[in-house]
Amino acid sequence: PWTYLGWKITNHNITPQTLPISAKISNLNDVQKLVGTINWVRPLLGISNEDLHPLF
């Protein structure tokens, strides 16, 4: 399979890559990584901007 911009592409389907989400937050960089990951998968999960407003 190929990977391209966060997607795993095979002959039969296209799926998002598995994202490692760390629940251990200890500094600002960890928060930024978590928010970036959530923002990337937001359209796939149907999460609205209003739902994420408290994070920004």
From TrEMBL:
GO terms for molecular function: endonuclease activity; hydrolase activity; RNA stem-loop binding; RNA-directed DNA polymerase activity. It comes from the Eukaryota. Keywords: Endonuclease, Hydrolase, Nuclease, Nucleotidyltransferase, RNA-directed DNA polymerase, Transferase. SUPFAM superfamilies: DNA/RNA polymerases. Residues 19-56 form the Reverse transcriptase thumb domain. This is POK18 protein. The lineage of its organism: Eukaryota, Metazoa, Chordata, Craniata, Vertebrata.
